[in-house]
Amino acid sequence: MLNNYLTDWEAVENIDLIKKTALQVWGENIEFGEIKGSNSPYPEFEWQIYLYSKFIIKLDYDRSTLSIGVPTKEGYVVLSSLTNESVFGGFDGMKPENLLHNFQVLDRLIQTQKID
After folding, report:
1. Which of 3, 17, 52, 54 is 20 to 30 A away from residue 27, measured at CA?
2. Is residue 94 a contact partner of residue 64, using CB atoms and an 8 Å limit?
3. 92: part of which helix (H) or strand (E)?
4. Res. 8 pLDDT band, cuts 50 70 90
């Protein structure tokens, strides 16, 4: 069965946007894991990215929204719960300038070592 995220034009475009934006922020300091689709009738997937060869970040895509999961001692926690900086959520989080902002917030969090 073909995963729905592969047949949804918006999901395919958003995968490209996520990758392009992540490369803009991290360049050679990022590795992209395998995209794992779900059995949902909607375009949903999980995508792990590896930052600075140390941090495994979990990206959860669900119908044009993206959640950024950050590892902690308690498991993965959404980025907005770990910072006082604004983080765009919902459909706004996938706008190119907002996605860039969210990835920059994540990078600052990692650089200050405020995650485990």
Report:
1. 3
2. yes
3. none
4. confident
